[in-house]
Amino acid sequence: GQLVESGGGSVQAGGPQRLSCLASASTDTSYYMAWFRQVPGKEREGVATISIYGRTMYADSVKGRFTISQDKAKNTLYLQMNSLKPEETAMYYCAADRSDWWFVAKYNYWGRGTQVTVSS
Asked: What is the pLDDT of residue 84?
């Protein structure tokens, strides 16, 4: 499967940003999906996941501010981010796998990432 992220860019602290991840037709609804983020020199960090049953999970640091969702008809995964903080500046990646890796970065498929820069 192929994953292509979009929606990154520059945003003021406190503002919103919505990321999208378009999946190829082969990455169908039977995949567990997730958003990760990474800054140079640090490990990739799990942000949000959505299971094949629609169950969502969030890292404690983003609970109440980020929302993961998917439009199965459009093969698209979203990450709505609100109240963004400067320390959340990172490359954001979309991931997919037939196994549920939760927040472990062992998903089989990854996009190339989209940069989000939050300025204070």
From this structure: 98
